[in-house]
Design a protein that fits this description.
single chain, mainly beta, Jelly Rolls, six-stranded antiparallel beta sheet, 0% helix
Length: 132
C-alpha cells in the first residue's frame, strides 16, 4: 500500500517538474534559484518586507500567477516606457492575476494576507525600487 503524505504548503517549496512529477521540499527556498521546473509557493505576509515591496521582480523565462488567498494586496507592474504610470492590480481573497513574462512587478499589502504564486524561477531577478 502506498502512503501519500500531506504537504504543509506554508512550510514547503513545491516543485512542478516538466516530466509530470511534483516534489515537495521542506522549508521555503529562494524563489530566484536556477533550479529547473515550476515552483508553487504559499506564504503569510504581515508586512511589506514579507513581499519585498521595496523591490521590483522579474521572471524572464515565464509568466507568474499571483493569487491572494486571504486578505487584500496590490500588485504593481512597472511602466514599460518613461513617463508612464505604474499599473495597479487589486487582488482580494480568492482572486488572481497573471504577470506577463519579462514584466517587472512588485506587491504591496493593504492588510496582512496569504498569497500563493506559481512561476518558473530560473533567471528571476530583484532590483531595488529606488533604481527603477
Amino acid at each position: 500500500m502506498t502512503v501519500v503524505p500531506s504537504i504543509d504548503l506554508f512550510g514547503s517549496s513545491i516543485h512542478l517538474h516538466q516530466g509530470g512529477e511534483i516534489h515537495a521540499e521542506r522549508g521555503l527556498r529562494d524563489e530566484h534559484s536556477d533550479q529547473d521546473g515550476w515552483r508553487l509557493t504559499a506564504f503569510h505576509a504581515k508586512s511589506g518586507a514579507d513581499v519585498h515591496a521595496d523591490h521590483w521582480e522579474v521572471h524572464p523565462e515565464a509568466e507568474k500567477m499571483v493569487s491572494c488567498l486571504i486578505g487584500k494586496i496590490r500588485l504593481y507592474l512597472r511602466p514599460e516606457r518613461p513617463g508612464q504610470e505604474e499599473e495597479e492590480i487589486r487582488l482580494t481573497a480568492g482572486t488572481a492575476t497573471v504577470v506577463p513574462r519579462g514584466r517587472w512587478h512588485r506587491i504591496e499589502l493593504d492588510i496582512p494576507s496569504t498569497i500563493m504564486a506559481v512561476t518558473l524561477p530560473r533567471g528571476s531577478r530583484l532590483e531595488e525600487r529606488t533604481r527603477a
